[in-house]
Specification:
A hairpin with a 3-residue loop joins strand 1 and strand 2 (72-75). This protein is mostly helical. The chain has two domains: 12-77, Arc Repressor Mutant, subunit A; 80-120, no CATH class. The protein contains five helices and two strands. This is GntR family transcriptional regulator. Keywords: DNA-binding, Transcription, Transcription regulation. One of its GO terms (molecular function) is DNA binding.
Length: 121
């Protein structure tokens, strides 16, 4: 895992869970990949192992990772699809309305947006 800055705004287990989800969405953790062990993460980030276990358990409860007895936790085959679907839904319901409103307020056309995207690539 990469360096993590903990914030006071949310419980650490939730922040750790969100970091693992971000790694899945970014392709850093792919289906079949093993998650670092609870002990390894706890030692590396000076966390209580129970905190790490709670984050991992929530990921397992959402079927994003699976426990393999004696081997650890692994990213499920469906994780990417599930996460992408939920992120798309969240974007469309929570973020898109504000983006759409701003586009309308600025009077931008579809052509301008597509040209702008083409220049950004």
């Amino acid at each position: 895992m990469t360096s993590i800055q903990w914030s006071d705004g949310a419980p650490i287990y939730r922040q750790l869970k969100e970091r693992v989800i971000a790694m899945m969405l970014d392709g850093l953790l792919k289906p079949g990949d093993a998650l670092p062990s609870v002990r390894q993460v706890a030692a590396e980030y000076q966390l209580n192992p129970i905190t790490v276990s709670r984050a991992y358990q929530e990921l397992a409860d959402e079927a994003l990772v699976e426990k393999r007895r004696g081997l650890g936790m692994f990213v499920t085959e469906e994780a990417s699809k599930k996460l992408m679907a939920s992120e798309r839904e969240r974007f469309l319901t929570e973020e898109w309305p504000a983006v759409s409103e701003r586009i309308e307020r600025l009077g931008l056309t579809i052509e301008e947006l597509l040209i702008s995207k083409g220049n950004a690539s």
